[in-house]
């Protein structure tokens, strides 16, 4: 709900926005207490174990949402995936593993999950030319800026580096700001022009 409010401030009349809720599940990092989460988070260090099965299942759920929109008459190359934190991580992973050509990815304050599972060098995916807008606050205490920087370097080795834009925001923590939302709006308007 929080993001649907943020998106209301930048929405374009010709674009449909879908903000799915993550399911509620126990999260290891949260002392196994249930919270909305796309997949389990075991740790926050770059070498922490990852919930591979959960990440892959969550990506299948996103692919099902894309399929539904395609059935509704929206070509997949007119769909941008986007998300914040875990949702951004899931958006990146899904875009790089789906067989559907997408219009772009907006990845906010996030990282690339299962990065070691991707081959070295350019991916052979339909989305190897996908435009990516990756944004990160330079004061993020939860997902450090270093994760964003490592992710952008990995992305540039996998897809056309000219299509990867990395923006940082001074003083921003694990949140968003007006400047970031305006960058997101500009990206969406550029890659989903009115037809």
Automatic annotation (TrEMBL):
Entry's Gene Ontology cellular component terms: endoplasmic reticulum; nuclear membrane; plasma membrane
Residue intervals of the Phospholipase/carboxylesterase/thioesterase domain: 1-191
Subcellular location, record wording: Cell membrane; Cytoplasm; Endoplasmic reticulum; Nucleus membrane
Gene3D superfamilies, per the entry: alpha/beta hydrolase
Molecular functions (GO terms): carboxylic ester hydrolase activity; palmitoyl-(protein) hydrolase activity
Keywords: Acetylation, Cell membrane, Cytoplasm, Endoplasmic reticulum, Fatty acid metabolism, Hydrolase, Lipid metabolism, Membrane, Nucleus
InterPro entries: AB_hydrolase_fold, LYPA1-2/EST-like, PLipase/COase/thioEstase
GO annotation, biological process: fatty acid metabolic process
Catalyses which reaction(s): a 1-(9Z-octadecenoyl)-2-acyl-sn-glycero-3-phosphocholine + H2O = a 2-acyl-sn-glycero-3-phosphocholine + (9Z)-octadecenoate + H(+); 1-hexadecanoyl-sn-glycero-3-phosphocholine + H2O = sn-glycerol 3-phosphocholine + hexadecanoate + H(+); S-hexadecanoyl-L-cysteinyl-[protein] + H2O = L-cysteinyl-[protein] + hexadecanoate + H(+)
EC numbers, comma separated: 3.1.2.22
Pfam families, alphabetized: Abhydrolase_2 (PF02230)
Keyword presence, Cell membrane: yes
Main localization category: membrane
Function: Acts as an acyl-protein thioesterase. Hydrolyzes fatty acids from S-acylated cysteine residues in proteins such as trimeric G alpha proteins or HRAS. Acts as a palmitoyl thioesterase that catalyzes depalmitoylation of proteins, such as ADRB2, KCNMA1 and SQSTM1. Acts as a negative regulator of autophagy by mediating palmitoylation of SQSTM1, decreasing affinity between SQSTM1 and ATG8 proteins and recruitment of ubiquitinated cargo proteins to autophagosomes. Acts as a lysophospholipase and hydrolyzes lysophosphatidylcholine (lyso-PC).
Subunit annotation: Homodimer.
Family: Belongs to the AB hydrolase superfamily. AB hydrolase 2 family.
Protein name as annotated: Acyl-protein thioesterase 1
Lineage of source species: Eukaryota, Metazoa, Chordata, Craniata, Vertebrata
């Amino acid at each position: 709900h929080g993001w649907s409010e943020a998106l209301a401030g930048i929405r374009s009349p010709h674009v449909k926005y879908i903000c799915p809720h993550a399911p509620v599940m126990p999260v290891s990092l949260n002392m196994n207490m249930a919270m909305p989460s796309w997949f389990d988070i075991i740790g926050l260090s770059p070498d922490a174990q990852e919930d591979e099965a959960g990440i892959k299942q969550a990506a299948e759920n996103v692919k099902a949402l894309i399929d539904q929109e395609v059935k509704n008459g929206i070509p997949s190359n007119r769909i941008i995936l986007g998300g914040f934190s875990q949702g951004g991580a899931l958006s990146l992973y899904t875009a790089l593993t789906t067989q559907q050509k997408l219009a772009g990815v907006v990845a906010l304050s996030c990282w690339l999950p299962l990065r070691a599972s991707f081959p070295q060098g350019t991916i052979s995916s339909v989305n190897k030319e996908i435009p990516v807008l990756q944004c990160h606050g330079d004061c993020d205490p939860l997902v450090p800026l270093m994760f964003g920087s490592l992710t952008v370097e990995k992305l540039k080795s996998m897809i056309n580096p000219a299509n990867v834009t990395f923006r940082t925001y001074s003083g921003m923590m694990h949140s968003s700001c007006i400047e970031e939302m305006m960058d997101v709006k500009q990206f969406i308007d550029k890659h989903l022009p009115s037809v």
